[in-house]
Design brief:
Blueprint (H helix, E strand, L loop, with lengths): L3 H24 L4 H18 L2 H20 L7 H14 L3 H23 L11 H13 L8
Helix pairs in contact: 1-2, 1-6, 2-3, 2-4, 3-4, 4-5, 4-6, 5-6
Length: 150
């Protein structure tokens, strides 16, 4: 039975990341009713795995990284993105979350550059960042940096 719990948790995280991406692309917001329960489940999962320290360091390090532009008043990362990044940090833990943020940042940069060149986006074009965060998290989950069967 314990073999299936990590697998079911990954399926839950997959569904959360897909739902958040869909809503963010469609409405340009990340709903609390999806992210807050996912944060609670991620904390419970970390407690079950006895990996609380790694999860908390991962969550708070990502918040610190993304909060700097937000506190400086620079446009870009919204509070929903910040909560999603915290959730992803809790899910992946430290140092795995760094790979997810790198994938999210690079994929976001590629899409922004392509959009600027091909679609004439400018700096005022709103680009939802949640799907890129979700892509980074899915990349790490799928690349076996975190084994499903522990």
């Amino acid at each position: 039975m314990t073999v299936y719990i990590p697998f079911l948790m990954r399926l839950f995280y997959l569904s959360v990341l897909l739902a958040v991406s869909y809503v963010d692309l469609r409405e340009r917001r990340i709903p609390n009713r999806i992210v807050v329960p996912a944060i609670l489940v991620a904390v419970a999962d970390a407690l079950w795995r006895a990996d609380v320290l790694s999860s908390l360091v991962g969550g708070f390090s990502v918040v610190a990284f993304f909060a700097i532009p937000a506190f400086l008043g620079l446009p870009g990362i919204g509070i929903g993105d910040l909560k999603l990044a915290f959730c992803i940090g809790l899910i992946l833990g430290w140092p795995n979350v760094t790979s997810a943020i790198m994938v999210a940042t690079l994929s976001g940069a590629v899409v922004t550059i392509l959009g600027s060149v091909l679609c004439h986006w400018d700096r005022h074009t709103a680009i939802p960042y949640g799907p890129f965060l979700a892509l980074g998290a899915l990349w790490v989950l799928a690349s076996n940096l975190i084994p499903i069967f522990q």
